[in-house]
Amino acid sequence: MVQPLTESIALYNGVEIPKLGLGVFLMKDEDELVEAVKAAVEIGYRHFDTAKIYGNEEYLARGLKESGISREEIFLTSKVWNYDQGYEQTKLAFQETLDRLDTDYLDLYLIHWAAPKYVETWRALVELYEEGRVKAIGVSNFQIHHLEELKKQELMQPMINQIETHPEFPQNELHEYMEENGIIHEAWGPLGQGKTDLFNQPVIVELAAKYSKSPAQIILRWHLERGEVIIPKSVHANRIKENSEVFDFSLTAEEMEQMKSLDTGVRYGSDPDDQERLEQSSIRPEETK
């Protein structure tokens, strides 16, 4: 077995989260996901990120079980979906997630989006944390005003915020706010989800040649230099391995400055303030029939 990829960042409660994880968003084929997870464990990954809405928590559990890795060696994240939000429903959803993942605790549980009941949902997460059923709690796709609302309610501050981030959409204002407030920045879609021409940008191509790395590795290193946790997704063992080989070089301050030229302000994922989408996705499927 290779050396585990355990370089980590401490959340404000002292829990260590590995800087690199495997995201399993859009992985719908069970056998493909299981093989990807087993390959990732073999390569050294110890951090895995899923969500109820992905519909693959059971597949991830199977992959981890077949890999032979012990639960204590894994950092496991899942998220509560919009139609499961609210105080009581969140607690039920959390237990269902534990059952699907075949575990009795999570390392990190997140509110997936700031849907209408997110304040009550956060109260439930705080209680789950205080009960020791989850080691750390946080949010995903929250804007500054959402985080300020939790602060106004005098509730525990999220330990992490998982948001769309890539060189074309660095989220600088939110990034700085989180730094100032001790909230760790976790990037989803760190490579632009294949919706961008990032890999062909001259500054990235030149840095890739300089460091004998791929454009993807340059981008992932850019995230790490910013102090972010990253969860790139891939089902291919060679790509999963490539994404892990980003801890043996660094970008200079000047090179980080050059990367700023790639900021276009373009968001490829959903808008966290799209109220119509948030309300629609908060309706349970059976309620629409």
Short description:
The protein is α/β, with parallel strands linked by helices and 289 residues long. The chain has a domain at 8-193 and 226-234: Alpha-Beta Barrel (TIM Barrel).
What does this structure look like?
The chain is an alpha/beta fold. The protein has a domain at 8-193 and 226-234: NADP-dependent oxidoreductase domain (TIM Barrel). The chain is 39% helix and 13% strand. The chain is built from eleven helices and ten strands. The strands form two sheets. It has an eight-stranded parallel beta sheet. Strands 1-2 form a two-stranded antiparallel sheet. It is globular. 44% of the residues are buried. The mean pLDDT is 95.
How would you describe this structure in keywords?
289 residues; two-stranded antiparallel sheet; 11 helices; TIM Barrel; alpha/beta
Helix content: 25-40%
Uncertain regions: pLDDT < 50 for 5+ in a row?
none
> Approximately how much beta-strand content do the residues carry?
5-15%
* Distance between the amino and carboxyl termini: 50 Å
Shape designation: globular
Topology, element by element:
Layout lengths: L7 E3 L5 E3 L3 E2 L6 H14 L3 E3 L7 H11 L7 E6 L6 H15 L6 E4 L6 H13 L6 E4 L3 H9 L7 E5 L7 H10 L2 E5 L13 H10 L3 H11 L3 E2 L6 H8 L8 H7 L15 H6 L9
Parallel strand pairs: 3-4, 4-5, 5-6, 6-7, 7-8, 8-9, 9-10
Antiparallel strand pairs: 1-2
Helix pairs in contact: 1-2, 1-9, 3-4, 7-8
